[in-house]
Design a protein that fits this description.
The protein is mostly helical. Among the domains are: 58 residues, no CATH class; 130 residues, Leucine-rich Repeat Variant, CATH 1.25.10; 101 residues. Helix content is 63%, strand content 1%. Strands 1-2 form a two-stranded antiparallel ribbon. Helix 4 runs antiparallel to helix 5 and helix 8 packs parallel to helix 10. The longest helix is centred in the C-terminal third of the chain and has 18 residues. The protein starts with a helix and ends with a helix.
Length: 418
């Protein structure tokens, strides 16, 4: 009987293809998906849009293929809503905040509102290759610049490594939104081979694109960018570009940058002081240790003091105790305002085995917030030796600690391939 009903609905939508037919099909749940898929061929744009919306609401693995089909629609709105629907499958609730939720039409054109987006799926979430392929093709050549920018955003959220060439191609679009979203996607995917591909954007005329390019070059450790970055610091367009270029250098400094970074330890702006301190920490020249120690003891602002603590940890200061920089970073995980900064520093420092080993004690004996944030640190930077510690966190008496511990354990195992 269900197949008879589905067949009748299919025939109805094939010939009349009204919004009412689409909504009736959606009420059949997964049984209505063939009808909704057929509606994607309708000549009526409103019918195609509604079909994509209903496929997204239905969700489930059977909705993926028709949503991929919808990314090839000739209309940008359909492409955008299909893109959001695909992301929503892997990141439930995304469709409520994606660009599709802000779309409006002005004549024959559409416009959505792009806001900052830091979302990214957990590393253990496996995305179908054909989803990434479809989004990559859309990033390379969608029906409109908004649909291309949205596809770049989706590729980043889904960690779409295979679509990196498409995202790099999108950088040539000359559209600021597309270029910005492409750069943010490359930051999320963190493919170092993409680093050299963004160097030509370091002096882009749009401040937002330039800042994103500067940050991307640093995060991807694009050493080819260093000469240009040093030039920008020496003769910046404005204070924002100076700060962004210095921060990029600080991600991948060479020995020759020590004098530059040391000068900025005395800058009036606290962000510049923080950048200088963390950069010196990455240089890891023991000759800078006295200056960094003095800076850490005398600095009164939180951000540069955290950076100095990170630098000293990178120099090998791993003692635990209230007067020590590693303990200071761990303590800051309890601060709602600064915990993300401390977590990022610990995540980077924990790539060193000796730092990871020093963090196991506070992981087991720390506060609730320390356990949660340190689980995230080890998910990103742990090794096989970290597995038993996260396994223990996954069974913690505090349900929030246990949930984060399990999530971190799954992420670490996925990264280690075990």
């Amino acid at each position: 009987m269900r197949f008879v009903v589905a067949g009748i609905l299919f025939a109805q939508i094939l010939f009349s293809q009204t919004l009412k037919d689409v909504k009736n099909a959606a009420r059949q749940g997964s049984q209505g998906i063939p009808v909704l898929t057929s509606a994607l061929q309708s000549q009526d744009l409103a019918v195609r849009v509604e079909a994509v919306r209903q496929l997204t609401l239905l969700g489930g693995k059977d909705s993926i293929a028709p949503l991929i089909q919808a990314t090839r629609d000739s209309d940008a709105e359909v492409q955008i809503r299909a893109t959001d629907g695909l992301v929503n499958f892997y990141l439930p609730g995304y469709v409520k905040t994606g660009i599709g939720s802000t779309l409006h039409r002005v004549g024959s054109s559409i416009k959505g509102k792009f806001t900052e987006n830091e979302q990214i799926i957990d590393s253990f979430v496996m995305v179908r290759p054909d989803v990434i392929t479809a989004l990559g093709q859309l990033a390379r050549g969608g029906a409109g610049m908004d649909s291309r920018a949205n596809a770049c955003r989706a590729v980043g959220i889904l960690r779409g490594q295979a679509a990196v060439p498409d995202v790099i191609d999108a950088l040539k679009s000359k559209d600021n939104d597309v270029m910005f979203e492409a750069l943010i996607a490359l930051q999320k995917i963190r493919d170092p081979q993409a680093g050299p591909k963004v160097v030509y954007l370091l002096r882009d005329l749009d401040d937002r694109v330039q800042a994103a390019a500067l940050e991307t070059a640093g995060l991807l450790r694009a050493k080819d960018a260093l000469p240009t970055l040093r030039g920008i610091v020496q003769s910046p367009r404005n204070a924002k570009s100076e700060r962004a270029a210095l921060a990029s250098i600080a991600f991948m400094p060479e020995e020759v940058d020590r004098s530059l970074l040391s000068r900025y330890l005395g800058a009036k702006e606290e962000k510049l002081r923080a950048i200088a301190a963390e950069g010196l920490g990455r240089v890891a020249n023991r000759g800078d240790e006295p200056a960094l120690e003095k800076f850490w003891q005398e600095e009164t602002k939180m951000a540069p003091r955290l950076a100095a603590a990170f630098a000293l940890v990178m120099e090998g200061k791993l003692q635990m105790g209230e007067a020590n920089p590693l303990q200071y970073l761990v303590n800051t995980l309890n601060s709602a305002t600064f915990r993300n900064i401390a977590q990022a520093y610990l995540e980077e420092a924990a790539r060193k085995q000796e730092v990871r080993a020093a963090l196991y004690m506070p992981l087991e004996q720390g506060t609730r917030d320390e356990k949660i944030q340190l689980s995230k640190v080890l998910a990103a930077s742990g090794d096989a030796a970290s597995v038993p510690y996260l396994d223990k966190m996954s069974r913690d008496n505090d349900k929030d600690v246990a949930a984060e511990g399990l999530r971190a354990l799954r992420s670490l195992k996925a990264r280690l391939g075990v």
